[in-house]
Amino acid sequence: MMFFLEETLINTLVGMCITYTCISVPFLFVKFTEKNSLLVKCGLGVLVGLASAYIFRDGIANHVALFSVIISPITFGFIFFGYPVLIFGIITSTLFIFGDTSYYDVFSVVYFLCLVGFHLTKRRGMAYVIISYSIAQSVNLFSHVSALSESGYWQLAIAKTSLSLVFLMMLYFAFGKLLDLSTSQHYFKKASETDPLTGVSNRRSIDLYLKKVEQSENTQFCVFMLDIDNFKSINDNFGHPFGDTIISTVAKLIKKNIRSHDFVGRYGGEEFIIILNSSLDNALPVAEKMRVIIQEHVSETDSQESVCVTVSVGIAEHASGSPVNIAVANADSALYKAKTGGKNRVEVY
Ligand SMILES: Nc1nc2c(ncn2[C@@H]2O[C@H](COP(=O)(O)OP(=O)(O)OP(=O)(O)O)[C@@H](O)[C@H]2O)c(=O)[nH]1
Question: Where is the GGDEF domain (predicted)?
Answer without folding.
Answer: 219-349
